[in-house]
Amino acid sequence: MPSSYAAVRTDAPARYAKQLASHMSRRIDATWDGSAGALPFPFGHCALRAEEGELILEAEAPDEAELSRVEEVVGSHLERFGRKNELVVSWQRAQPG
How far is CA 42 from CA 5, 19, 29, 45, 88, in A? Predict the structure, then answer.
């Protein structure tokens, strides 16, 4: 299953993760417990983890096209929420195998 990873530098990783999960929960069963969460889309999945100074995103999907869709949905929303603080989501694809 294709996967990718992004480490988003921010002084407020938990706040952005909570906002992202809350926003997504209008359409999916998103979760956030204060330090980790999940966005289970019908076309893939993204795990969220708040660490010191960064929000870790780990995405996976059944194929490359769906993985791109997860990356686009999560990345575009997070960048929009963090526009004032110039958040940038830069996905790195995991190597197969």
Answer: 19, 20, 10, 8, 25
Q: What is the DSSP letter of 12?
A: -
| Amino acid symbol at 92 | Q
94 in Cβ contact with 3 (< 8 Å): yes
Q: What is the pLDDT of residue 57?
A: 98
Q: Is 48 helix (H, G, I), strand (E, B) or coil?
A: strand
pLDDT at position 43: 97
Nearest to 71 by CA among 50, 90, 49, 48: 90
Report d(CA 85, CA 83) in Å as an integer. Answer: 5
* Distance from chain centroid for Cα 2: 15
Higher pLDDT among residues 95 and 49, named by residue: 49
In angstroms, rounded to a whole number, what is the distance separating the alpha carbons of residues 35 and 94?
23
Angle, in degrees to the nearest 10, between helices 13-24 and 64-81: 120
Backbone angles phi, psi at 18, to 5 degrees: -60, -45
